[in-house]
Amino acid sequence: MNRKSPARNAFNLFIYFCVIVVAFTLICAAVFTVYKLCSRLVSGHASVVFDPVLFARGIFLFAPIVLIASGSFMLFYLMRHSTSSWLPLIIYIILYGTSWFILIPMDLTMEKQFSAKHTLLEDYNAKRSIVLSSGYFRDLYHQNDVNKQEEKSVWYYSSVEKGNVANGLCIDFGTASGKGSGSVYTFSNATLDLTQNEFSDPLIEKNVKMNPFVEYVVNFLRLTSIILRKCFFAGTLAWYAYLSMALALLSVAGVRHISKWRLVNFIAISFFSIAIVVVNNLIYTDSIMKPVTSFMNDLLSAVPVKTSNPFAVLFNLLTFAILTVAGIIRDIKHRIEVAEEEIIEDL
Q: Which helix (H) or strand (E) holds 40?
């Protein structure tokens, strides 16, 4: 078989899919584990190198996100390895369909069983058992209830007893900008509630906390994950309605050869994939699209098949139809061009 053999391209696509899903899931789970362990870390205390429960939770958490993103990665591969055969595209449809209809439901079901044994209460209790170390200055920020401005104070814990009852010194700067009136006072028997913040130690938070862009991306992925799980556990009809997004994402294959320039194709695949997920997230949440979503859902309330978000289903089906028709037309032309190139190369 030569370099452009359809069978080889299809087999390589399968291997590529497996490697992408496994590798990215493990990487995301590892990063999740490290970040969560850092959130429990306290200056002056020994750190935990690895937590198998957190790592397993990270796998269950990120596997669906990676499987959803795998469609775009497979399209990048198909864009790069063009062929006149439909076989690689058929394998793409089978693999991506398997991801949505089999692998993601399996992951969510297994995650539920895993969470029954390892509840989030364990994380809460783990934080409650953490005792801050003494001898460190820690910056704390809180919002003033009167003027709603962020205020800064520096706390020095001279001693910390079991249960995080602390004694020490506080330097109150007023507003975070330092323009407010400051004061210095001692405190004793102050109870420190570590469960109210993501990080146990402000010193660790200062160095590990995500920058705004990364935090925005993580929040976007978290929102997608929450909506996915909510629809899956809401029942068969709600899940099938959400699966209409899988059809819309599947049809993004129609733009993989929209141009002869691969960079344009890469941007088109990325744009449509992200746009479909973003619009669905906006429809399923109280967002800037709520007036439009409410109007369309009321308009579609007469549809015989009842679902909580018929507008999302309509959007996904229309996207699927438009991209599929456009893709078939463009694919036929592209395959004729590729077939002509293959004939010339074989001469």
A: helix 6-40
Kindly tell me the sign of the dihedral angle through the C-alpha atoms of 145, 147, 153, 158.
Answer: negative
pLDDT, tens digit, 9 for 90 and up, residues 265-275: 999 999 999 99
Report the candidate in 90, 205, 81 with the shortest Cα–Cα distance to residue 140: 205
Pairwise CA distance, residues 271 & 275, whole Å: 6
For 259, the token pair is 């141009």
CB 149 within 8 A of CB 141: no
Q: 324 with 251: CB under 8 angstroms? A: yes
pLDDT in tens, 28-50: 999 999 888 887 777 766 666 77
Angstrom distance (rounded) from CA 305 to CA 300: 10
How far apart, in Å, are the Cα atoms of 213 and each of 26, 217, 223? 23, 6, 15
Output the six-digit token pair for 242: 């959400």
**β-pairing verdict for 150-161 and 165-175:** antiparallel
Rounded average pLDDT over 83-108:
91
Q: Which of 65-74, 105-114, 258-267, 285-294 has the lowest mean pLDDT?
A: 285-294
Give the 3-state secondary structure of residue 305: coil
Q: Rounded distance, CA 28 to CA 294, Å?
A: 36
pLDDT at residue 78 above 60?
A: yes
- CB-based burial, 62-75: b 16+ in 10 Å, e otherwise: bbbbbbbbbbbbbb
